[in-house]
Design a protein that fits this description.
Structural class of chain B: alpha/beta
Structural class of chain A: alpha+beta
CATH topology of the largest domain in chain A: ATP Synthase, domain 1
Low-confidence stretches of chain A: none
Oligomer: heterodimer
Distance between the termini of chain A: 38 Å
Largest interface: A-B, 24 and 28 residues
CATH architecture of the largest domain in chain B: 3-Layer(aba) Sandwich
Radius of gyration of chain A: 16 Å
Low-confidence stretches of chain B: 64-71
Order of helices and strands of chain A: EEEEEEEEHH
Number of helices of chain B: 5
CATH architecture of the largest domain in chain A: Sandwich
Distance between the termini of chain B: 34 Å
CATH class of the largest domain in chain B: Alpha Beta
Mean pLDDT of chain B: 87
Strand content of chain B: 5-15%
Helix content of chain A: 25-40%
Number of strands of chain B: 6
Shape of chain A: globular
Number of helices of chain A: 2
C-alpha cells in the first residue's frame, strides 16, 4: 500500500498549494529536512530556500522566504511569508535584489537593524536563484 | 406653492447627486472584488496559524506534560496579567465616510468598552482616520494612529502595527489588548467583532481541539516559539486589516446603492408633483381664456 502525504502551503496573501504528495524536502533551521508519510509530529522553523515536492515522477520546486512547517497527525502544513513556484520567479529581479542587498551590506556600517534586513533580503534572493538553478540542471537546454 | 422653475432645479440637483452616488457604488464594487479575493486568500493562513498555536497552547498547558513543573514554558505573549491597571484597545475604522453605519457602530462599541473599564487606563490605537478624528475631537488621547493605509494595504503594515502593539504589551502594567473591527461576512453584511488580540489564547473549544502531541522541535522549543508567536500576532492583524478593508467597501457599496435608489424615488415624486402643478396651471389658463371669450360674446 502506498501512502501519500497531505500537504498545504499557505502564505499571508493566499494559499499556494493543497495536494497529496509522496515526499517533501525542506530548508529547515538546522539543515535540509526530508518528510515522508508517517512522519512524527514536528514543528520546525524554515530558512529561505528551495522546497522540493515529489509526487510520482515529477518534482516541483518552490522558493520560500522563511516560515514554519508543522507535521501533525500525518498532515504537513507549511507557513511561509512568501512561496513562489519556480515558474513564477523573475530571475532578473532576483538578481537585482541580490546585487542591491550585497551593496547595502558593504555600505551600511554599524546600524544593526539595517544590516540584518539587507542580509535577509539577500537570503531571499539567493533562495529564489537556487530554485532556478536546480530547475535548469534538471532540464538542460537541448 | 413652489414655482415650476424651482422644482425643475430641485430635480436637477437630485439627479447630479444620484450620479455621484452611482459612481461611488460602481467604484466600491470594483475595488470590493479585489479586496474580497485578498481576504479569502488570507483567511487560510491566519486560520492555520491559529490552529497551530492552539495545538501548542494545549500542549504547553496540559498538566500531563512530561516536563517538570519548573520547566513549564512561559512566554510574555501568553501570560495573563489579571488586574493590571491598564488595557489596550485597537480600533479599526475606515479612512472615509459615506459607508452607512460602518464607522459609527465601531466608535459606539469603542465608547462602550471605555465606559465598561472606567477604573482602568485605556490606551487607544487607531487604524483609520474616522476613529482617530472622533477620539481626538472628544479630547481622548490616541497613542498611535495609522492613517491612509487601506489604499495600499500590505503585510508590512501588519508588521508595523504588530511591533507597536507587542512593544506596548511588553509593559507589565498592561493586562491585555482588545481589538474592535468589522468582519467581512458578505457584500451586504458586516459583523462587528470585539476580541482579545493579546495575550494569545485558545480559540477552539478544548474538547473539539486536536489531541495534544509531543512535537519534535527544531530549533529548540523556546527559540522556535520566540520566533513563532510574534508572527502569529502579525498574521492575525493582517487578516483583521483585510477583513475591515473588504467590509468597508461592502458597506459603502450598499450605502451608495440605497442612496441611488432613494434619489430615484425622490426624482419620481418631485417630477409627479411638478407635472401636477403644470397641468393645474394649464387648466387654469384655459378656463380663464374660455371665461374671457364668453365674456366678450
Amino acid at each position: 500500500m502506498t501512502k501519500t502525504l497531505p500537504l498545504v502551503i499557505v502564505t499571508p496573501e493566499k494559499s499556494t498549494l493543497e495536494d497529496h504528495v509522496d515526499s517533501i524536502t525542506l530548508p529547515a533551521f538546522e539543515g535540509q529536512l526530508g518528510i515522508l508519510p508517517g512522519h512524527a509530529p514536528l514543528l520546525a522553523q524554515l530558512q529561505p530556500g528551495p522546497v522540493l515536492i515529489r509526487k510520482g515522477d515529477t518534482v516541483q520546486t518552490l522558493a520560500v522566504s522563511g516560515g514554519f512547517v508543522e507535521v501533525h497527525e500525518g498532515r504537513v502544513a507549511i507557513f511561509a511569508e512568501t512561496a513562489e513556484m519556480a515558474e513564477e520567479i523573475n530571475e532578473q529581479r532576483a538578481r537585482q535584489a541580490l546585487e542591491r542587498a550585497r551593496e547595502e551590506i558593504h555600505q551600511v556600517k554599524g546600524h544593526e537593524e539595517d544590516l540584518s534586513q539587507a542580509r535577509a533580503s539577500m537570503e531571499r534572493a539567493l533562495a529564489r536563484l537556487k530554485v532556478l538553478d536546480g530547475l535548469r540542471r534538471k532540464m538542460p537546454r537541448s | 406653492m413652489p414655482s415650476l422653475r424651482e422644482l425643475r432645479r430641485k430635480v436637477k440637483t437630485i439627479r447630479s447627486t444620484q450620479q455621484i452616488t452611482k459612481a461611488m457604488k460602481m467604484m466600491s464594487a470594483a475595488r470590493l472584488r479585489r479586496a474580497q479575493n485578498r481576504i479569502l486568500g488570507a483567511r487560510p493562513f491566519a486560520l492555520k496559524m491559529q490552529e497551530l498555536v492552539d495545538d501548542l497552547l494545549l500542549q504547553l498547558t496540559t498538566p500531563s506534560d512530561n516536563d517538570s513543573p519548573d520547566s513549564r514554558y512561559q512566554h510574555p505573549l501568553l501570560t495573563m496579567r489579571r488586574g493590571a491597571r491598564s488595557r489596550g484597545l485597537l480600533l479599526v475604522t475606515a479612512d472615509k465616510g459615506l459607508c452607512g453605519s460602518f464607522n459609527t457602530s465601531l466608535i459606539r462599541n469603542a465608547i462602550e468598552f471605555i465606559r465598561e473599564n472606567k477604573d482602568r487606563k485605556i490606551t487607544l490605537f487607531c487604524v483609520g482616520r474616522k476613529g482617530r478624528d472622533f477620539f481626538r475631537r472628544a479630547g481622548y488621547s490616541v497613542k498611535n494612529e495609522y492613517i491612509n493605509i487601506f489604499t495600499k494595504l500590505s503585510f508590512a503594515h501588519a508588521e508595523l502595527l504588530g511591533r507597536d502593539l507587542m512593544d506596548f504589551y511588553g509593559n507589565p502594567d498592561v493586562q491585555d489588548i482588545t481589538v474592535i473591527y468589522n468582519e467581512f461576512k458578505s457584500v451586504m453584511q458586516q459583523r462587528l467583532v470585539r476580541e482579545t488580540l493579546l495575550p494569545l489564547s485558545l480559540h477552539t473549544n478544548p474538547n473539539q481541539a486536536r489531541p495534544a502531541v509531543g512535537f519534535i522541535y527544531e530549533p529548540r522549543r523556546d527559540l522556535l516559539l520566540e520566533a513563532l508567536f510574534p508572527r502569529t500576532v502579525k498574521a492575525q492583524i493582517f487578516r483583521i486589516l483585510l477583513e475591515s478593508a473588504a467590509a468597508e467597501l461592502g458597506a459603502r457599496m450598499t450605502a451608495m446603492e440605497n442612496a441611488t435608489r432613494n434619489a430615484a424615488e425622490m426624482i419620481e415624486s418631485v417630477t409627479l408633483y411638478m407635472n401636477k402643478i403644470r397641468q393645474g396651471t394649464i387648466t387654469k389658463e384655459i378656463s380663464e381664456l374660455i371665461a374671457g371669450a364668453e365674456a366678450l360674446q
